[in-house]
């Protein structure tokens, strides 16, 4: 049992190392791209933004930014969160 747990933990650690090695994808240029890149890449790569852009609406991006602040503790003030939400909604939001 201990060996199985060690194998699982090793696989998780190895996978985490690979994920961190991925360079962040560049974000689309536009107002708010710099602050979005800086703020979001602090905790995860912008690859997550690109990956989620296929199904999140502008309203859902606003909800995601709020989740990053409230659930995960992203240190964003209201103005920064609004700028990021606006940028993501305009550049990566899908229309329902």
Describe this structure in words.
- It is built from 5 helices and no strands.
- The protein is mainly alpha-helical and 96 residues long.
- It has a single domain, classed as Cytochrome c-like domain (Cytochrome Bc1 Complex, Chain D, domain 2).
- Helix 4 (58-70) packs antiparallel against helix 5 (78-92).
- The termini are far apart.
- Residues 1-19 have low confidence and may be disordered.
Total DSSP E strands: 0
Helix content: 55-70%
Q: What are the secondary-structure elements, in order, as H or E? A: HHHHH
- In the CATH scheme, the class would be Mainly Alpha
What does the overall shape look like? globular
Number of structural units classed as domains: 1
Q: Assign the CATH topology.
A: Cytochrome Bc1 Complex, Chain D, domain 2
CATH homologous group name: Cytochrome c-like domain
**N-C termini distance:** 48 Å
Sheet with most strands: none
Please tell me the CATH architecture by its name: Orthogonal Bundle
Mean pLDDT: 83
Name the beta content range: under 5%
Count of alpha and pi helical runs: 5
Taking Cα atoms only, what radius of gyration do you get, to the nearest Å? 16 Å
Instruction: Look at the helices and sheets and give the structural class.
Output: mainly alpha
Task: List the uncertain runs.
Answer: 1-19
